[in-house]
């Protein structure tokens, strides 16, 4: 009974689980779940603990207060040069300038260029051209190792979740008015954040290398690139070498001071010495801010300045190389399928046993919460696993099993099931073992044995040379009338001879069959008739076959 119960439960659960798992995987493959999976990713980012300020970094922000005090927009080359001199005097590791300077903002152009060319601490940004916007050149006369791109990767919906480590300008980009280093497709350019990270690690004798698979490696730490179908992404743009950005903090990724504080010597040298310093606009007027996973709504207050984004990326790379902190990783496709199917199967099994509507609802909500928090716990260790597909298949399978069971047990469902089964002739509801047992019981019964004896006696009378009617026995016990005349006995013998031979009416003509042969043929005919009835009448039960079988015996007895 346990095996039958398991079989009865297992078939609908397995079929429903496979169906919904395949359906969800198909929907996910074509990208219809990307939005919800990325939203879950954003929620995980928001739920992780704030790691606080990275003491290896300092951000010098140019905000609205600075612009009002300096009465400059944008800030002049001289103001920028003076701030860089102040910073360099306190011996930082390196200084990143997230301020575009393709054209001069006088006064102070020559002063700024001389400072940039004569110091190894400065890296300044440019922008690579694209099909939708012009590239922005760096200041003239600077080598490639002093230039970093400011380009960032924006997902559909405007959220920034990835950063570029390096990339090349496209071969067919936007309109090129003047050729420069940042719109030449032959150049591979490092991003500002990656170039600053390399400069910092180089001073600690840590050099990058590429593995045979083309992956970036620092010592024993490998930085695998973002792929087009990584995690919840589907067919994303993975141009260049990208990295999923694991944000450190929503508001306090690094220590932050104002530009005017640097110019007025109000910043402690300890905040500058031996750090990576980034200088850039934090005012909304610069239009250099982005929506992030922390943006609960698209308002200016929910945007993060580009210079802070670069700081987040630097902090993540340094943590991975120096602290062995895990980067965001994902499972392989087979493991993801196993995870999704496992929760689908769990949903089907729980739905089979929990039939009460209220308990069923509590179960669905509770287990969905378990899936979410398990996925969150793994994300806090760096793993991004498919939470939305798992919850979707769990709920779909649970509801599907309930609906399937109710439909199957309803009168309408039973009627449809029988009609479909009869139409397609897919299955016959006959217990083969039971039918064989019933056949054996009938053939071994006294009634059947008496019938065989009667056939044998009649055969012997037909084959007797005398055809003596006086020797004919009475067989009233089997339902035959008494043979009381020679004519009736002769007619019976003649009938048997005609039916058996199919062409002879002479009682003295041998039939060619012994009584044992007749018994064997008769049993075979009955078994063939049973098989024919099973094939022709798929909806008939085994009890009906038993009744028909006995009726066949009675009809054969009357015919004899």
Which spans of ≥5 residues are poorly predicted at pLDDT below 50?
Answer: 1-6, 469-516, 537-543
Distance between the termini: 46 Å
Main sheet record: 6 strands, parallel
Estimate percent helicity: 40-55%
Total DSSP E strands: 15
Q: Which strand order does the major sheet show?
A: 4-3-2-13-1-12
Strand-pairing-aware structural class: alpha/beta
* Shape type: elongated
Q: In oligomeric terms, what are we looking at?
A: single chain
Alpha plus pi helix count = 17
* Backbone CA Rg: 45 Å
Describe this structure in words.
The radius of gyration is 45 Å and the shape is elongated. The longest helix is centred in the N-terminal third of the chain and has 28 residues, at 2-29. It starts with a helix and ends with a helix. Strand 9 and strand 10 form a beta hairpin. The protein has helices at 2-29, 34-47, 64-70, 77-88, 109-118, 192-202, 259-263, 306-322, 333-353, 357-379, 387-409, 411-424, 432-443, 446-463, 486-501, 515-536, 542-559; strands at residues 54-62, 94-98, 122-126, 147-149, 153-154, 160-167, 189-190, 208-210, 216-218, 221-223, 241-244, 254-258, 276-281, 289-291, 303-305. The strands form four sheets. A six-stranded parallel β-sheet has the order 4-3-2-13-1-12, sandwiched between helices. Mean pLDDT is 81; it is low at 1-6, 469-516 and 537-543. Helix 1 (2-29) packs across helix 11, helix 10 packs antiparallel against helix 11 and helix 14 (446-463) packs across helix 16. It has 560 residues and is of the alpha/beta class. The protein contains 17 helices and 15 strands.
């Amino acid at each position: 009974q346990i095996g039958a119960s398991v079989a009865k439960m297992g078939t609908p659960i397995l079929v429903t689980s496979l169906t919904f798992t395949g359906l969800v995987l198909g929907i996910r493959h074509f990208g219809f779940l990307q939005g919800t999976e990325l939203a879950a990713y954003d929620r995980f980012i928001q739920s992780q603990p704030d790691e606080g300020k990275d003491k290896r970094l300092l951000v010098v922000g140019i905000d609205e207060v600075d612009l009002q005090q300096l009465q400059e927009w944008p800030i002049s080359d001289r103001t920028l040069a003076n701030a860089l001199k102040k910073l360099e005097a306190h011996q930082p590791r390196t200084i990143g300038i997230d301020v575009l300077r393709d054209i001069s903002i006088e006064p102070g152009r020559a002063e700024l260029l001389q400072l940039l060319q004569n110091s190894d601490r400065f890296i300044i940004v440019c922008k690579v051209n694209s099909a939708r916007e012009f590239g922005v050149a760096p200041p003239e006369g600077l080598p490639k190792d002093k230039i970093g791109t400011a380009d960032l990767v924006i997902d559909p919906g405007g959220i920034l979740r990835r950063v570029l480590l390096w990339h090349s300008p496209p071969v067919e980009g936007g309109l090129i008015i003047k050729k420069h280093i940042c719109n030449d497709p032959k150049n591979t350019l490092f991003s500002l954040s990656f170039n600053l990270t390399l400069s910092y690690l180089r001073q600690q004798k840590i050099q990058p290398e590429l593995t045979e698979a083309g992956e970036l490696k620092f010592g024993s730490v490998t930085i695998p690139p973002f792929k087009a179908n990584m995690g919840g992404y589907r067919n994303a743009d993975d141009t260049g070498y990208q990295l999923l950005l694991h944000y450190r903090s929503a508001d306090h990724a690094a220590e932050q001071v104002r530009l005017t504080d640097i110019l007025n010597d109000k910043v402690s040298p300890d905040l500058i010495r031996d750090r990576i310093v980034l200088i850039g606009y934090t005012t909304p007027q610069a239009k250099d801010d982005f929506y992030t996973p922390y943006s609960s709504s698209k308002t200016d207050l929910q945007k993060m300045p580009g210079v802070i984004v670069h700081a987040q990326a630097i902090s993540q790379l340094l943590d991975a190389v120096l602290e062995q902190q895990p980067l965001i990783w994902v499972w392989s496709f087979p493991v993801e399928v196993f995870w999704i199917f496992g929760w689908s199967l769990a949903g089907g099994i729980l739905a089979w046993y929990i039939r009460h509507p209220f308990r069923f609802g509590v179960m669905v909500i509770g287990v969905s919460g378990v899936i979410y928090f398990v996925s969150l716990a793994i994300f806090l260790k760096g793993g991004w696993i498919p939470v939305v597909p798992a919850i979707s298949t769990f709920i779909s399978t649970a509801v599907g099993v309930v609906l399937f069971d109710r439909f199957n047990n309803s009168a309408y469902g039973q009627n449809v099931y029988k009609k479909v089964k009869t139409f397609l002739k897919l299955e016959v509801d006959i217990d083969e073992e039971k039918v064989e047992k019933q056949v054996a019981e009938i053939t071994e019964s006294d009634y059947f044995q008496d019938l065989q004896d009667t056939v044998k006696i009649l055969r012997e009378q037909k084959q007797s040379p005398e055809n003596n009617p006086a020797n004919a026995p009475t067989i009233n016990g089997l339902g035959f009338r008494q043979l009381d005349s020679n004519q009736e006995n002769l007619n019976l013998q003649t009938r048997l001879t005609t039916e058996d031979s199919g062409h002879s009416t002479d009682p003295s003509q041998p039939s060619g069959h012994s009584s044992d042969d007749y018994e064997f043929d008769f049993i075979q005919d009955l078994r063939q008739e049973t098989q024919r009835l099973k094939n022709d009448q798929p909806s008939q039960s085994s009890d009906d076959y038993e009744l028909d079988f006995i009726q066949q015996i009675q009809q054969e007895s009357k015919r004899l």
